[in-house]
Each structure stands twice: as structure tokens, then as C-alpha cells.
Design goal:
This protein is mainly α. The chain has a single domain, classed as Fumarate reductase/succinate dehydrogenase, transmembrane subunit (3 helical TM bundles of succinate and fumarate reductases, Up-down Bundle), CATH 1.20.1300.10. 79% of the residues lie in helices and 0% in strands. The protein has five helices and no strands. 11% of the residues are buried.
Length: 131
């Protein structure tokens, strides 16, 4: 056994991802992926609701009534967060692709902006929904 193998054996093994402090850009990246997956999975249901609401006035009133429940409003806020977060993060990634904000300190600031901006917009929608 050589010295490199001994060093590898001595390294601490921490498999608990909750104890690791990730940079904000990593958290934002995971949120961007999660939002994209959520939007993709919910797209058929959202299109069904749209189609149902456009059928006739009775179906529109049915959809409107279903969306008035507190649980539906909560899920609507999750969908709105997904849309806003995915949109803001997408703009950030487009800017990174053209080398705008690629420096580490600026990349961290834009990640914080995306996270804070998406939550602030969702809070505004929540105030509107639950008034």
C-alpha cells in the first residue's frame, strides 16, 4: 500500500449532504432543475385546466371554483415560484453563456438575486391570493 492509498483511507467520509454548505449558485442551480422538472410534469394538467376553462361557461366556473380552495392556491404559488425561478435563472444562465457575470463574486450575487427575486414575487402573489 503506497502513501497515496493511506491518505485516501484517512480522509473523513461524510455522506450527509445536509451537513455540507453549498454555495448559493449551487442551490439556485438545483432549484432551476427542480422547477423545470415540476413545470414539465405539471404541463399536461395545466393544459387540461386551460382546455376545460375554455370549453364553456359552466366548465369555466367549475375550474374557477376549484382554484378558490386554500390548497389549490398553495399549489398555484408553487407553480408560480417554478415559473418565476425558472425564468430568472434562465436569464442568468444566458448571461453566463455570453460571459456576463462570470466572475465568482458576481455569480454569487446574481444567484442571490434569482433566489430572492423569485421568493419576493411569490410573496406578492400570495398577498394577492390570500387577501
Amino acid at each position: 500500500m503506497n502513501s497515496l492509498d493511506k491518505q485516501i483511507e484517512k480522509r473523513p467520509k461524510n455522506l450527509n449532504l445536509l451537513s455540507v454548505k453549498f454555495p448559493m449558485s449551487a442551490v439556485m442551480s438545483v432549484g432551476h432543475r427542480a422547477a423545470g422538472i415540476l413545470l414539465f410534469l405539471l404541463l399536461p394538467y395545466l393544459l387540461y385546466l386551460l382546455q376545460l376553462s375554455l370549453n364553456n361557461e359552466t366548465d369555466f366556473l367549475l375550474v374557477k371554483e376549484q382554484l378558490q380552495s386554500p390548497m389549490a392556491k398553495f399549489f398555484s404559488l408553487i407553480i408560480i415560484w417554478s415559473l418565476v425561478h425558472h425564468f430568472l435563472a434562465g436569464i442568468r444562465y444566458f448571461l453566463l453563456d455570453i460571459d456576463v457575470g462570470i466572475e465568482k463574486h458576481l455569480a454569487q450575487k446574481t444567484a442571490v438575486f434569482v433566489m430572492a427575486g423569485s421568493f419576493m414575487i411569490v410573496i406578492l402573489f400570495a398577498l394577492f391570493f390570500f387577501q
